[in-house]
Amino acid sequence: MGAFTTRSGSILVLITATLALPACAMYVPSKHLFRADRIFPDPTNQETYQSTEGRAEANIVGNLRCEIQNGIYLASAITHEGKSNAAYLRQSWGTQVTLKLTWDEQSSFSPGLSLIHPKPNSQSRIIGFGGSASAHATRVETVTFLFENSALYNDEVKWLQNRLDNPGGSLNDCSRRETGTMINSDLRISDFIVDKATIASVGIATTDQPNNAPFSTFQEDITFVGAFSANFTPTWKLTRFAANSTGNLIAGTRTVTGEVIITLGPLATDEKGRYLHKLGELPSAQHIAAFGSSAIASQVISQGR
Questions:
Q1: pLDDT of 184-201, one tens digit each?
Q2: pLDDT band at residue 25 under the 50/70/90 scheme
Q3: How, if at all, do strands 250-269 and 93-109 pair?
Q4: Among candidates 294, 87, 96, 284, which has minimal Cα distance to 197?
Q5: Distance CA 73, CA 156 (A)
Q6: What are the residues whose beta carbons fall under 8 Å from the beta carbon of 67, sequence distance 6 or more?
Q7: 209 Cβ contact list (under 8 Å, min separation 6)
Q8: Fewer Cβ atoms within 10 A, N terminus or C terminus of the chain?
Q9: What is the average per-residue pLDDT within 212-236?
Q10: Beta-carbon neighbour count of residue 181 at 10 Å?
Q11: pTM here?
């Protein structure tokens, strides 16, 4: 998937989940395919009563932070004709991130029966009966957070200073947060930041000095989708009737979607010029617009299923 956890599960779990469909009961999808969300007290350390799902999502956030931090550090080292034109990226800019996780489950129950009346001359009359019931539930969770790039840059410098005391010193290793089946540390976020900082630093995007930040916003939108499906269709064919000869008796589909919107731009300032913990007007408006478009698209896709 990329930056979020989608765990492959047993097909039998999906089939079992569809058995309650004739009662048309609606339910909220669990984050884990096998069980409901749960909290575990851990008396062995100070991190008690944390949820396993929350810890997995914390790894996603940490993964994002790591890649953004590496990208800012690398972009800050870019020079053009001996000049560092993108210093503002680590000094006066911030990074806002919206992480949206969606769990979508669909189940259906469609029994069918055909009554067969044999007739002379190898002919027969068939009368078919059928019905169907379905359930569709969607769970969406969204979190938005903001990093001050100067703090991320300083953290990276401290990391490198500690690592350089040992052989093989390198950038912060984001792969240490790979703790799930589909958590992948290489989201190319640092590549995105370096690419845009490169364009900004060479001055081709402005008629002004490149060190005056020719771009008002950098933005990236990443989406991952993982889907699982299963069906169960026993078929009986006897002399005078046939059951479930076409279609699926029971079917279930589970789709897990993760979307990350990353926006870099100048931090807002107060009347005294002090930086505030929020993006300025232009990058903030663009981030809100991107999130709004994503929400509308998600609703259209969900209703169309």
A1: 557 889 999 999 999 888
A2: very low
A3: antiparallel
A4: 87
A5: 7
A6: 174, 185, 187, 189, 190
A7: 85, 203
A8: C
A9: 83
A10: 11
A11: 0.76
Which residue's entry shows tokens 């703790």?
179
The two tokens of residue 149 are: 């790039």
For the ranges 127-131, 242-246, 263-267, the lowest mean pLDDT is seen at 242-246
List the structure tokens of 34: 């096998």
Kindly state the tokens that stand for 87.
């210093």
Q: Two tokens at 238? A: 């006897």
Q: In this structure, what token pair is assigned to residue 57? A: 């999502």
Token pair belonging to 24: 């048309």
Whole-angstrom distance, CA of residue 208 vs CA of residue 201: 12
- The structure tokens 């089939």 sit at 15
